[in-house]
Fold these 2 entries.
Entry 1:
Amino acid sequence: MLETKLISQLQKIAGKEAVLTSKEDLTTYSYDGTTTWAHMPDVVVLPTTTEQVSQILKLANENGIPVTPRGAGTNVSGGSIPIKGGIVLCTAKMNKILDINKTNLTATIEPGVVLQDFNMALAKQGLFYPPDPVSFFGCTLGGNVAENSAGPYCVKYGVTKHYLLGLEVVLANGYVMKLGGVTVKNRTGYELIMLFTGSEGTLGVITKITVKLLPMPPARKTMIAVFDDMEVAGQAVSDIMASGVVPAKIEFVDNFVIRRVEEMTPMGLPVEANALLILETDGSPAAVEADAQQIVDILKKSGAKDVKVAKDANEAAMYWKARSAGFAAVFGAAHTVMAEDVAVPRDKLAEFIRRLGEISKKSGFFIQFLGHAGDGNLHPSIFTDIRDKEQFARAQETMAEIFRAAMELGGVLSGEHGIGLEKQRFLKEAMDPVAIDIMKKIKGVLDPNNILNPGKIWEEGA
Amino acid sequence: MLETKLISQLQKIAGKEAVLTSKEDLTTYSYDGTTTWAHMPDVVVLPTTTEQVSQILKLANENGIPVTPRGAGTNVSGGSIPIKGGIVLCTAKMNKILDINKTNLTATIEPGVVLQDFNMALAKQGLFYPPDPVSFFGCTLGGNVAENSAGPYCVKYGVTKHYLLGLEVVLANGYVMKLGGVTVKNRTGYELIMLFTGSEGTLGVITKITVKLLPMPPARKTMIAVFDDMEVAGQAVSDIMASGVVPAKIEFVDNFVIRRVEEMTPMGLPVEANALLILETDGSPAAVEADAQQIVDILKKSGAKDVKVAKDANEAAMYWKARSAGFAAVFGAAHTVMAEDVAVPRDKLAEFIRRLGEISKKSGFFIQFLGHAGDGNLHPSIFTDIRDKEQFARAQETMAEIFRAAMELGGVLSGEHGIGLEKQRFLKEAMDPVAIDIMKKIKGVLDPNNILNPGKIWEEGA
């Protein structure tokens, strides 16, 4: 528990209504999109200005109070859970779009801007910001930077880090640091912006973000391909990537998702299919037409049972809704959903899918999966119940096997969700020990009192 | 001077023929593409393996000997000049292309691979690696990573850092650290790859690089636009960027370059023109056709006196040769060429060009410039002579004014060349002082004895 004096100091900084202490409020901020972890904070503060963030951090730093930065809490690796208690610093109310510049093709936003609100504002001006985590309806741009978020569009367009030009970051001691600017090229010193990107709130609190924009592609086309065999679908993705065409998105959903989505909202998905690829191509109308034809040809040649091109935007939207709903369907399927986030080389996708089948058979756990197949980034999930200790332990071991199978194929522990709490016990297997040591030392440089999101990424004392 | 014992230890590590000590050899490695600085090393070593690099660094670290990593020495900010003497560690002989994977769309190369050799190997397989510094005929990929190089293609495709997936880096103490891998997405811990990218050889020696590739665009088209007025050309660039089309390249050359190129190799360039834009669009044949038409229309509407679309690949190659030759023409134009590398927001290009005119008038120096207009990244040059102290001091002051004019417009000190020696006296004006302090502390973490490229980026004792 924090002293009453500190609570009243926080109230003085951010205003009474911005400081939450009731049990109900604290519970709301005790968990995030991850289902295996929760921890109560002592207090939640919702600042509205950079100056307030600076004063909150100064106070916390002087008193050694843990601070967990948080956007919308859509994180799925436990990064925004206040595992050490203390202050949850939620930037959701710093939600102004400060500038959209159509000629410079840049925008500056506050961290609490919801991605979808930003996308809508950009669309009005014919502009496009590609990184599109499936949580786009809720997630905030500050969280996107802290997690270096990605999504379906990243096959063609890259991830959040590829779009960052400038940051304002408040350091642990309250110093407001400005990095980068509004130019698309900048070679002034080390890439410090990249250091904060994906640092999961452990190095600073992001208070302003400048991103690079693109013109909205004038045309898009969505296709779906139905497969009897998941491995064949995986191979089809490799075939497309090797063919010279670059789809904007290549998403994979399995039979579990197809059935669940169809149960929730019947939309005529092929419930017997073992795998569905949902693809999009974008660009000029002529290019889209040609690319779509090429993709359809490859899909058929690669063994798709059925290939459909969405006849209009409504039909396309329906397929993408199925993909988004898949995410919800998976996370609502059990008390505890352990979702992996491995990425494998794109030419190893079919092999990895085969390995998942073997692991499922051996462990007895059904392994559901969907994901960003075009990036080799799959989200295999195991449905379990954390309250059943024996089963949960077996689920954890099975998850470890999945991760090790990915690593053996040249893959990585996390493609886009980050390490947080969920994957930190695997970090030593996934990363050079000296690199982990360097991370810790950099953390020590930027946050010597270890107040910023302590207990994340690496295991303590490890 | 290094002790004879150390020289023989280096010979034992890398072989006798890989250790250069003659005055002629040392002179060759005493300068780089920058014309204002030079310093003799004590010895040059050309290792061929990571293990040798590791042993060289271990030896240097234990004996406190400065090590300046070097690729081809095409650097234009002094980054590869051994300003403290000691060892030049040249990676030019580590020049194997280790893997090109067409399905995963990745390649792994050693640092000494020349960019053009890499491009040729990729082209055979229909693959494309976009970052294209104008020094591509000589520069090496290790240098490209250390400098986070960019070039004309970066308007559409981004810079070196956008393509890096994995690095092998030898740390100052000789430890061989592996970062990242061959997946296009990776969210395992901090972005340490980005920390080494653009660190100008001050944090480690890069010994292996894995990059993301793209399929080679099936079609390209080159256009040139002739302008009477440089500001109008600058505005035309802004107009194109705001129009929704994304050219692959938009390069700017001024009358000085047009005349010099025409003198060297007559190719029918318009010698009376005050500015020439050279543009390229790429993609599917249909998209290229449509984009080229849109660009031509905008150029005409924006006040171009003449617009030409290259009728074939030969004519296109001629225009791009003129652009490359421009670089050489500028650097050969005087004893000392001070080349700025500022970048301004793309909507401030015309305004910046106007300011350059004013600075030229006031200072009496002719200011030549060319550059990557689509990125707002210009290279204004002043022709001077470092041996004439009074004139050189005035040139330096004029350069400072150019930099400050860019900063006032929201621009940055360096768009792509880095800080090195050339721009370090401006660093304090260009970067948050706390950010500079963080860079120094990170340097302290990774290179506690300060052996790696000491004396670069920030001024010592400053």
Entry 2:
Amino acid sequence: MFQSAGIVARFDKKESLKLAKELVDHLYKKGVEVFVEETLPSELHKHAKAIPLNQMKTDFVITIGGDGTILRTCLALPKPEPPILAINMSVRGFLTEAEPKQALEAVEKCLQGKYIIEKCMKLSAATKETKFPDALNEVVTIAEEPTKLLYMRIMKDKEHIVNCQADGLMVSTQTGSTGYSLSAGGPVLDPQVNSFVLTPLCPLTPFHPIVFPAKTKLTIEIEKPKRILVIIDGHYRQLVSSEPLEITVTKSRNATSFIRMQENFYHRLRSRLLFKGNG
Amino acid sequence: MFQSAGIVARFDKKESLKLAKELVDHLYKKGVEVFVEETLPSELHKHAKAIPLNQMKTDFVITIGGDGTILRTCLALPKPEPPILAINMSVRGFLTEAEPKQALEAVEKCLQGKYIIEKCMKLSAATKETKFPDALNEVVTIAEEPTKLLYMRIMKDKEHIVNCQADGLMVSTQTGSTGYSLSAGGPVLDPQVNSFVLTPLCPLTPFHPIVFPAKTKLTIEIEKPKRILVIIDGHYRQLVSSEPLEITVTKSRNATSFIRMQENFYHRLRSRLLFKGNG
Amino acid sequence: MFQSAGIVARFDKKESLKLAKELVDHLYKKGVEVFVEETLPSELHKHAKAIPLNQMKTDFVITIGGDGTILRTCLALPKPEPPILAINMSVRGFLTEAEPKQALEAVEKCLQGKYIIEKCMKLSAATKETKFPDALNEVVTIAEEPTKLLYMRIMKDKEHIVNCQADGLMVSTQTGSTGYSLSAGGPVLDPQVNSFVLTPLCPLTPFHPIVFPAKTKLTIEIEKPKRILVIIDGHYRQLVSSEPLEITVTKSRNATSFIRMQENFYHRLRSRLLFKGNG
Amino acid sequence: MFQSAGIVARFDKKESLKLAKELVDHLYKKGVEVFVEETLPSELHKHAKAIPLNQMKTDFVITIGGDGTILRTCLALPKPEPPILAINMSVRGFLTEAEPKQALEAVEKCLQGKYIIEKCMKLSAATKETKFPDALNEVVTIAEEPTKLLYMRIMKDKEHIVNCQADGLMVSTQTGSTGYSLSAGGPVLDPQVNSFVLTPLCPLTPFHPIVFPAKTKLTIEIEKPKRILVIIDGHYRQLVSSEPLEITVTKSRNATSFIRMQENFYHRLRSRLLFKGNG
């Protein structure tokens, strides 16, 4: 039974803050201890404690926003991550579970235990010196200056498998396979496939996405340039210039758990494939 | 220890028949019982018995040809299939192990037990009434008349996952992922990924390759037209008009075993990616 | 001023025949001489003469159906082709101008001269011996047996430009560039681009769509197999086994003219890109 | 007759400087007035005047390097640009004419007038306030922070044609169509096609390359973010934050002229398609 809840919300949208307040009040009435991200405005603090995301060790977390809000929440939450109920308040909400008008009902179901958990693999990326935060969607290795070519050697465990000249390389989870990786020409990975996929960005040399078993230790050795950018889930960005310049990617021991009313990966995939944006 | 060998060879190439004869003689001298495919010319029958492919229950089988020769051999061999040592006598020999001049040495290593076995998953395709031969590379569902659109519904186990209008759909193994599926825009599957991939042929509606766990029972329901063609590994072709018109694809209990001197999937992949054909 | 009209309609749909009848009656009342395709049922013959498509030398032609109806009409109409007003009675009506409920209004505008003509380039394909009907969308060269590889040499005018191993090759007009060619990975050609595009079908060797100037004489020499299928606009299908086996494609002297209320190529493109089919 | 020559060379490669010196000496002996880029070392100044690239108004210019050297030379040369003889001293020399060992012979042919001129269209990009240098290959509009999504509206002349959400958009010439645009999934444009092509970078929404007539005024309106990066030919990079934020691209009045011994576009294309890099 959930006895504490964390609330994260976009603060650039009125409706988002309004819904956050409603949920705080509702949970408070139900006797649930509520925490809100400290950056949220003070009118939300009446029935909730304000804490930073990385201290939100609650029984579950509600995100109000789109995929961006979910991704930055996962990056920051303490490990193991509390499960996430994602309310959609965005144009791009492929990972979200419920629309705003269904929010109260979904929260109610959470409190009643009427839900399932979708556990999503994460990726762990590191250099010899630095470990990056785990990725729910993807790890991108790219030049600091957009469109500059990277010269790379790719190793699977200890085996050199292929070289690649491209704008960048992306390693994507099953969850991420319907996101940026799809835009770059990668395949969809069914959530039950125990794999991740390596997708190139604008390869100069013929190169195709490669699907690896999740147990693989993938190493990307960058021969040129001397400094590159690692981007995790589109939010965490880190310049890297270690020597030798190489990034390893493995399956993380951590996972992200989504609260779902039912399995709906393919429902979400269909909406992604037919996504019109504001077009 | 290999005490019997089967030999399959392209019979449209002199060099192929010459090499077949050399290998028959060599194996015979070594005391190995040799069988040759009955369609091979009679000068090969001196030290070998001629039998049809589907009775070749030998300790191992040597194919002399290219990928086409391997695929038709796998389709016909009795199950469980004897392991295959594939000698390349073709422009397209991505699956082969040794070049003709290395053939004797490779056979010698086989007899000495100095080899490893690469076990390759196969796919089992069927209608309600008919089971097709297992596929080493891929199962293609396509219109009988080239370029006619198929209207399809795709089911994962019992779940309807997506509809698709396309020239056809291909389900490909890891082995097949570097073959026809790659030409159609599919990803490469590492041999250790326990998966298969669904790749569309010229989809009218936005559709991306999807990678499924090997345990999936994939069902392709064809709404239109009333009759379609199922093609296994490019060689076995069967018109299907059952009602309802649906094809199921699952992982087969059978596998194909290749005799390799060392693991070389990525070596073969690189030669595929840079393949120039006769261009 | 339009004094005669031809009517072509899908005869597998009641609504289509009903609308055809309405239009016949309307045009008859307005004093326009009406002709209907002879395959249409006799209740349409009261105020109209039944003639075969290839004799329909009327001032304009109304098609009631989808892209398929338009394509088969263009293939058969006498040259130079009368302009076409295309009413959409199909799921796929990317080339059509008006929805059924707008049909009477559109016809009225035609009679009042309130329209523009969109002139669409056609392609002329031929072997040394045979000239095929002109293509509004595309000329496809493909194996008779689906998925069999073609070995081809491509010549631009007299210059050998590149070899290609693929399931087939398509040469597509600007109009066709949003159709089958798009499904095969080809680019969109703006209607004002004086060009056509060569798009491969599942190329084994690395090969990209190539855009040629409209004045190009493109020759596809097929080295293997000995017999291939030429498909024009998805409707006309002809087996070819001339020796040498080669297909030339040039811009045709004929064109297809569509009656439009306004320029709307990009409107139609957007609906094509976001097309959901029955998915 | 060429009476003056400019020489541009990679200065990070000994062979390049050695060849530059040989050519200076050779041209000097032949009575040709020689100019070298001022950044080249002083041992080259004995028989040549050192001047900046943007003052190199010579009868022709010799570049010693790869495509990068050519592109930065074209960006800087005074207009109209002197014709370029490009000697390859790089892994990527798709645009070059001669290998180092053919350099003297090629220069000799230039002096004898035994050559043809390949005239290549350039693109002119601008905001309301700023005109960028002309592009020989492509104009890229992209976010300053790699992988950040751009929200764009695309106008053809005055007509809104389509919206696009992508990492970026590229407008490429025929020359550029075999370069970065190809890596991003664009088609090849024959040099005689009077067109340019719009190719998206990792589009989130379904979007295909579009080929426009060269006379088009293409406008890219960026709705988000407020500041973007314009990159010309991979070398010129300019942050733009005008309001409204829009980039127009048209055919330039300037062109780049290459000195060729014969027409060889498709020869160069084949080497591009089969390019192995250092893989």
